[in-house]
Design goal:
Blueprint: E1 2-10, E2 16-24, H1 28-39, E3 44-46, H2 47-53, H3 62-73, E4 77-80, E5 83-86, H4 88-94, H5 102-111, H6 113-121, E6 127-129, H7 130-139, H8 148-161, E7 165-169, E8 172-175, H9 178-188, H10 191-200, E9 217-225, E10 230-237, H11 243-263
Helix pairs in contact: 1-4, 4-5, 7-8
């Protein structure tokens, strides 16, 4: 749900100016659960159906409307013409193309500017008092006193979901840099080190580069490599290549080999034409 709190700020004339501070009080982790459930049945849903996925009997309830508002704050849904549509970001989370969906989860966390700004401005890799953070949300961010506990609960749970925080005590939390979060995943999953090594050296003989973050796999990977030169011909795709593409690939490979020979002072005769007569 999206929380709207009222705060007062002094103007230059000393007059109190009441402002609204919005934040998603439904945490990112809980929001993702709803998105994954809705995503099983497609991208667009009726409001009543969406209420059901969120655990409510009717779309007219206040709690559901607040949850829906939070989903919008996270950039996960859009509501138009009585329909709720999952965004591209939400569909990527509901139907990940790789084992690691952290990129999309982090992108959702960034959608809440208030949460992201608080995370960015605090020290990393040191223990911070949660109670002090809650107080700073009131004094520095404009969150009302009555909403600060709800604010901190959603913020900390969401930061943990995004891999940016870990609680280290009853009243302490440690924020993790984004790059350290990536390193931590590498330690937890040593295979990712091998994957990165293959990306850094795609010419490693007998090895196929891994799937990229957008789900495209290498369907063609040919490498010419020595101490002086390296030529890499690689095609990545989410699906198999059409049959007609392989004639073109033969042409491409022939020209790449001709270039390799030219670089080494050998005969660099151009490859012959395709079977379909397409000129090069």
């Amino acid at each position: 749900m999206t929380e709207v709190t009222k705060t007062e700020a002094s103007t230059e004339d000393g007059v109190k100016d009441s402002r609204s501070i919005r934040f998603p009080s439904l945490s990112l982790g809980e929001s993702i659960k709803i998105i994954k459930e809705a995503g099983k049945y497609g991208r667009q849903h009726g409001v009543d159906a969406m209420a059901g996925y969120a655990g409510h009997q009717t779309a007219n309830s206040g709690p559901f409307r607040q949850k829906l508002s939070s989903l919008r704050e996270w950039g996960l849904v859009a509501k138009t013409d009585g329909k709720v549509t999952l965004t591209d970001l939400a569909m990527g989370i509901a139907h990940p193309t790789t084992e690691d969906a952290s990129v999309d989860v982090l992108a959702a966390f960034r959608k809440c500017e208030l949460f992201w700004n608080l995370y960015e401005t605090k020290a990393k890799n040191v223990s911070l008092k949660i109670s002090h953070l809650a107080n700073s949300a009131v004094t520095e961010r404009g969150v009302s006193v009555g909403a600060k506990d709800k604010f901190m609960k959603s913020f900390l749970e969401s930061a943990e979901t995004a891999g940016l925080a870990e609680q280290v005590g009853n009243d302490e939390v440690r924020f993790l840099p984004v790059e350290e979060n990536e390193q931590k995943k590498s330690v937890d999953n040593p295979a990712s080190d091998d994957a990165q090594a293959l990306q850094d050296d795609p010419g490693a003989e007998g090895q196929v580069p891994p799937v990229d973050p957008r789900g495209k796999r290498p369907v063609v990977n040919q490498v010419w490599d020595d101490d002086d030169y390296q030529i890499v011909v690689q095609v990545r795709s989410k699906s198999s290549l059409p049959v007609a593409a392989f004639g073109k690939m033969g042409t491409l490979m022939g020209n790449a080999e001709a270039l390799w020979n030219l670089l080494h002072g050998e005969d660099a005769a151009p490859a012959e034409g395709d079977d379909d007569g397409t000129p090069r």
